[in-house]
Amino acid sequence: MTAPPIARAGRWIESYDGAHGAMIDCSQAVPDHAPPAEFAERLAVTAASQEAARYGDILGDQALRAAYASHVSSLYRSEIAASRVAITAGCNQAFFAAMLGVAQAGDAVVLPAPWYFNHKMTLEMLGIEARVLPLQAETGFLPVPSDVEALIDDRCRALVLVSPNNPTGAVYPPDLLAELLDVCVRRSLTLVLDETYRDFLAPESGAPHRLFGSAAAREHLVSLYSFSKSYAIPGHRVGAMIAGSGFIAQMEKVIDCVQICAPRPTQAALPWAIPALADWRGDNRHEIAKRAGVFREETGRLDGWALQQIGAYFAYVRHPWRGLSAEAVAEALMRDLGVLVLPGSFFGPSQEDHLRIAFANVPVDRIRELARRLALGLAGGFRADDQPHATRTAHG
């Protein structure tokens, strides 16, 4: 790609003339609200402190590592020591560091498609082959363990999964994750599991998985997390990693060379926020679940559109314009209707019929407006076929 995908899509905004009202931005997973006032105040106070201006521990402030370890231990009902936690400058840095820890140039990593584009970009920058595992709508965009194993050879070092998934929203069942960890153990791979959106799963469904209770997890599992979405602080760049103590020791070297430490003010405020904002996070989770329900209802009324997967933050939909590139469709939706979504082609091969819609960014009334505008497209208000940069695909 000539530019990072979010930046590339953002350049389409200026083409919209405002004819349908304010634009509806469903392009990026960004909370549509600020953090709660007390948390914001604590962030401001810590940012002004002398201590926060200093370098911190490379693996993260001890108080945050302990608070996060305690939280995850409770959530997964499995004891996790603070020494197995590293705090990173966002989950993207956690993934970058993890890839440096599991593979080197010339190695391969199994990457399901559609994928999170920053994962693919990281592998490309590091000279690591992305061993593509195509996923299908018919199976809910979930991998089949035997298909994973068929891709593994002596160059493979890891399997990368995202659950709840970006871009599809698919939630990996605990039994499937256990099977995939077993594959990794049997074939001497590391399972790198990005759980950025786990806080938006319904708590009554239980722990997202049972992997931390496995003896093999210390050697074969790296779990990644982001505080950005759950705490409405994406600009503060704080993420986390859980792995075996030996792997974390290697991460200390990597993080020291990349950024030295994660931002200190947010690290200082989060140990309070993790327990104190539990109810606030729960309210946000319920609100997003309501938005998901409305999105299902509204898109179900749209002729030609197919909702193929939804969960946590994202919906993955099949658009009605066969034969037109997904990027041409997304660009025209912005230009003609003021709706910004991402084309499936940003997430891997064979995705031209799909769009990713970040519905969690949008209040219920705006989701209904979104559906109204998409219906206008089919009624003739959408000029995708006139899109000057449109490229026909092999679908015919």
TrEMBL record:
<comment type="similarity">
    <text>Belongs to the class-I pyridoxal-phosphate-dependent aminotransferase family.</text>
</comment>
<dbReference type="GO" id="GO:0006520">
    <property type="term" value="P:amino acid metabolic process"/>
</dbReference>
<dbReference type="InterPro" id="IPR015421">
    <property type="entry name" value="PyrdxlP-dep_Trfase_major"/>
</dbReference>
<dbReference type="InterPro" id="IPR015424">
    <property type="entry name" value="PyrdxlP-dep_Trfase"/>
</dbReference>
<keyword id="KW-0808">Transferase</keyword>
<dbReference type="Pfam" id="PF00155">
    <property type="entry name" value="Aminotran_1_2"/>
</dbReference>
<feature type="domain" description="Aminotransferase class I/classII large">
    <location>
        <begin position="30"/>
        <end position="374"/>
    </location>
</feature>
<dbReference type="GO" id="GO:0004069">
    <property type="term" value="F:L-aspartate:2-oxoglutarate aminotransferase activity"/>
</dbReference>
<dbReference type="InterPro" id="IPR004838">
    <property type="entry name" value="NHTrfase_class1_PyrdxlP-BS"/>
</dbReference>
<keyword id="KW-0663">Pyridoxal phosphate</keyword>
<dbReference type="InterPro" id="IPR004839">
    <property type="entry name" value="Aminotransferase_I/II_large"/>
</dbReference>
<dbReference type="InterPro" id="IPR050596">
    <property type="entry name" value="AspAT/PAT-like"/>
</dbReference>
<keyword id="KW-0032">Aminotransferase</keyword>
<dbReference type="GO" id="GO:0030170">
    <property type="term" value="F:pyridoxal phosphate binding"/>
</dbReference>
<protein>
    <recommendedName>
        <fullName>Aminotransferase</fullName>
        <ecNumber>2.6.1.-</ecNumber>
    </recommendedName>
</protein>
